[in-house]
Amino acid sequence: MSWSSGKDSAWAVQALRQRPDLELVGLFTTIDPEQARVPMHAVRHALVEAQASALGLPLTPVPLASGAANESYEEAMRGLLRQARAVDVSAIAFGDLFLEEVRRYREERMGGTGLELLFPLWGRPPRELAEEMIDAGLRARIVCVDTEQAPVELLGREFDRALLASLPATADPCGENGEFHTFAYAGPPFARPVGIRSLGRSLSERFATLDLEPESLRLA
Hints:
The chain is α/β, with parallel strands linked by helices. The protein is about 30% helix and about 20% strand. A hairpin with a 2-residue loop joins strand 7 and strand 8. The protein starts with 6 loop residues before the first helix and ends with a helix.
């Protein structure tokens, strides 16, 4: 399962685990090796590891520099797919919702690999899906905001019904167009909450980010 650290990835894991014909065997995440963070979400590698532990799944980091060209992503993915086939993985899943060009890109680049592509959330109405996540108890916090698409004041807020009500009319309720990104930390499908602590906020050009760290690091 492609793991971004956000709510859609978490809910895709939940959906996959409802299928008796599938065994979910692991996660993979792109990690900027210099910054030790997930590109775009800017989430620390240590936090993604904590999420994987709370999910009871192994995590495979895929090295990819922030802002890398598509060619670099494709090369990194080819390496990952070789690893997957070597251990008899038969399918790879993504949490995409409705962006046709993104799905088409994945299907074109991964065609002929022998791996089936799964999109467990595909086609779900975003508002309905967002409310389903919230009502089921999934907890997530906004860690990145594209300030050209959404107000910076969303940064750090919980993904809840109050947030949905305050979104601009032009914003997708799930942030699928990149309006915002989240960090999922509790509720389904986690066996236990992931403790988080905020280290502050930053603004770089159009993107505002919230820096989180595992709570245990500050307590040690």
